[in-house]
């Protein structure tokens, strides 16, 4: 298992030297990304230090604090999370700005190439590729190998439309570890999730199948609260079917519910 440093690139939003602001706010989004990167790396068993500067300070003060935190630990990689700016495309021109990763030298090239390709693929934005700069403060002053990820552009509507901080974080971690992460408990839960609602012949009564039994709801607020909780847990609407008595699929569902468990298998 490896040790990593992860940090968001600037001060918190509205506090001192916060990051670029366009359609997206760098200091808001980069923190969602870094929190998720840290969570995913830890879930894979790695040790991770959060080296983000959370105080109100200047640009230089922020960078110095970040580097001081980074250099407290000898790590496999320092990961700096940023969002880019400079596209000035607030309307959207159907062309994304894209993602790029800055390196001090070629030691980190393989990881960098993977992160770029993963983010570009996951978000559907341009891959601007691996770049090099020996003057970027964090890259120049950290003792361990370091990477600076510019996830996408804050001021490009096309990037903002494709943006998903959590997907981006997963793409970064899969690039670092060079493996696919099958962690998401919610994804696995979705696969086994059988809950649904249905109506018959367009009648007002809404039936709810909770995975074990079917009940007839008695008012519309009951439907609303179930749908709300389901969506919060799963990130999408509960399936809702309009079945007809001429093709009564609800009867097939009921038959399955009523089947007796099998005692003996062949
Ligand atoms: Zn930045």
Automatic annotation (TrEMBL):
This is N-acetylmuramoyl-L-alanine amidase. Residues 67-177 form the MurNAc-LAA domain. CDD domains: MurNAc-LAA (cd02696). It comes from Sellimonas caecigallum. It comes from the Bacteria. SMART domains: Ami_3.
């Amino acid at each position: 298992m490896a040790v990593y440093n992860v940090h968001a690139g600037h001060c918190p939003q509205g506090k001192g030297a916060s990051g670029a602001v366009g359609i997206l706010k760098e200091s808001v989004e980069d923190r969602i990304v870094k929190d998720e990167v840290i969570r995913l790396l830890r879930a894979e068993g790695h040790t991770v230090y959060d080296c983000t500067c959370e105080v109100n300070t200047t640009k230089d003060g922020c960078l110095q604090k970040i580097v001081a935190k980074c250099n407290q630990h000898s790590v496999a990689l320092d990961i700096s999370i940023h969002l880019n700016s400079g596209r000035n495309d607030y309307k959207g021109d159907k062309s994304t700005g894209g993602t790029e990763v800055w390196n001090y030298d070629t030691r980190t090239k393989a990881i960098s190439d993977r992160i770029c390709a993963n983010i570009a693929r996951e978000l559907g934005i341009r891959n601007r590729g691996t770049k090099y700069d020996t003057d970027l403060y964090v890259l120049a002053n950290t003792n361990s190998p370091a990477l600076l990820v510019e996830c996408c552009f804050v001021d490009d509507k096309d990037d903002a439309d494709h943006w998903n901080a959590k997907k981006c974080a997963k793409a970064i971690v899969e690039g670092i570890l060079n493996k696919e992460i099958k962690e998401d408990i919610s994804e696995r839960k979705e696969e086994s999730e059988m809950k649904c609602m249905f109506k018959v012949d367009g009648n007002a009564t809404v039936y709810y199948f909770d995975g074990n039994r079917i009940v007839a709801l008695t008012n519309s607020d009951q439907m609303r609260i179930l749908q709300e909780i389901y969506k919060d847990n799963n990130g999408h609407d509960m399936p809702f079917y309009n079945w007809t008595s001429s093709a009564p699929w609800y009867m097939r569902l009921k038959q399955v519910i009523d089947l007796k468990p099998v005692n003996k298998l062949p």
